[in-house]
Design goal:
By secondary structure, this protein is an all-alpha fold. The protein has six helices and no strands. α3 packs antiparallel against α4. The longest helix is centred in the N-terminal third of the chain and has 29 residues. The protein is elongated, with a radius of gyration of 17 Å.
Length: 111
């Protein structure tokens, strides 16, 4: 379990590093975020990629709502996913993975 949590943490940090790199490179070389985003939204694969990304965020938010006991806590965890993306999902997974694994290991049928 700790290896999986560490892997998720490393990938989350790698994603954060890519975001920071892209933000720095963009401002130095290629104009604003909105200029580049406008280009992405004109490309078929750009639109498909963005749709895939946000549908995936929605699917992850559903898992958060199904896992958290309080809908308020779930909303506080799920809403930032749509802005902060998978970096935020990694944080939630690192914290909640032991609980999720425990829940998933329970038998489906009463004995």
């Amino acid at each position: 379990m700790n290896v999986l949590r560490a892997a998720i943490g490393i990938l989350g940090l790698a994603m954060l590093g890519l975001i920071i790199w892209a933000a720095v490179a963009m401002t130095d070389l290629h104009g604003s975020f909105l200029d580049q985003f406008a280009v992405i939204t004109t490309l078929p694969w750009g639109i498909a990629g963005l749709a895939d990304l946000y549908i995936g965020f929605f699917f992850f938010a559903v898992i958060v709502f199904l896992t958290e006991r309080s809908w308020v806590v779930a909303a506080l965890w799920a809403a930032p996913i749509f802005i902060l993306g998978n970096v935020w999902s990694a944080v939630w997974l690192i914290i909640r993975l032991p609980h999720i694994a425990k829940q998933l290991s329970k038998p489906d049928w009463p004995t």
